What we know:
Blueprint: H1 9-12, H2 14-23, H3 26-33, E1 46-56, E2 59-66, E3 79-85, E4 88-94, E5 106-111, H4 117-124, E6 131-134, E7 149-155, H5 160-171, E8 177-184, H6 193-202, E9 206-212, E10 227-228, H7 234-240, E11 248-254, H8 255-265, E12 271-277, E13 289-294, E14 299-304, H9 309-315, E15 333-338, E16 341-343, E17 349-350, E18 355-358, E19 362-364, E20 368-370
Parallel strand pairs: 7-8, 7-11, 8-9, 9-10, 11-12, 13-20
Antiparallel strand pairs: 1-2, 1-6, 2-5, 3-4, 3-6, 13-14, 15-18, 15-20, 16-17, 16-19
FE2/S2 (inorganic) cluster binds near residues 323, 327, 329, 358 and 360.
Amino acid sequence: xxxxxxxNPFIQNAPLQTLVQSVFSPTAFDFWVSHLNPTWxxxxxxxxxxxxxxxxxxxxxxxLKPNRHAQPFLAGQHINITAEIxxxxxxxxxxxxxxxxxxxxxxxxxxRMSGGKFSNWLHEHAxxxxxxxxxxxxxxxxxxxxxxxxxxxxAGSGITPFLSLIHEWVAQGALGEVTxxxxxxxxxxxxxxxxxxxxxxxxxxxHVYYALTQEQTPQNFQTPNHFIYERINQSLLDTLVxxxxxxxxxxxxxxxxxxxxxxxxxxxxxxxxxxxxxxPLITHDSTEQVNIHLTKSNRTIRVAxxxxxxxxxxAQGLKPESGCRMGICNTCVCTKQAGTTEHILTQERDTEAxxxxxxxxxxxxxxxxxxx
Length: 372
Ligand code: FES
């Protein structure tokens, strides 16, 4: 279980803990004990990579064993994972494809992103024995205890929370019905096909459809009738989920996909939960420039009005803390002391001094003062 600590005699022995605490700072303690075991730490949530497996053409699954400081999390939630790459710390959010089990391990399945420093490092350099830092779990897309009929709509690496959600649904008795529609460009990009196949054979109330957008001839598949070849649209949903008005819908994938899923289902479905990665394509008028004054670093920079603030600051060499980059983990939050910001997804504007701003999904609509 998650709460079972790694076998760390330093941390679990109370008298020794007191003695050590009086001699070392937590940082010094971490430095010295990490030479004995890299996941031993006074207080930092860490996890060691204990296995890696190819999940698809461009995805790798890493199995992680956390230390005792890691917080429990639910299927469908995300956690921030931090690694040091060439001396710099990078953080990205992942929704585990398996939550901690009896052996106290969980998995993340990482898609290699073109130009993605972190995902490429996890693919090419992260090895068994390496230690990653974990953040607190976050996210609302957990299994409903109100509705028993679910529709899961996944695109690309948005599939990862649904494997753990389906395992959670099984653990809770596999009641009601689950329909998963999973979009990928080609068959070779599909993850977890064997797992889904085993689950559908066991549970007749679980239905899985694979939707390919750039291929029409899946090879060696036992269930070719479960392949479809169209993007998300109303008539497809009407055909595959005729009882949508009795179901709760979950969608995870690129922002445009989740928005489309929301638009097509929200009015009929009982409820809708969406989690998007990346921001919709943003067009901003780069001719209109605003000043961003950063009080902690005592700098003023000029950025385009309407440009996502996190990306704009990074483009100028600043490194504000960030995690999910999609507005749900709060890692990037800061206080706005003056000025007008705009929520990139909802276009809502905020003029209030002293309000909190998530800079990954906010843009400046006037000169701003931020406590960064
Ligand atoms: S980085 Fe997660 S909310 Fe901004």
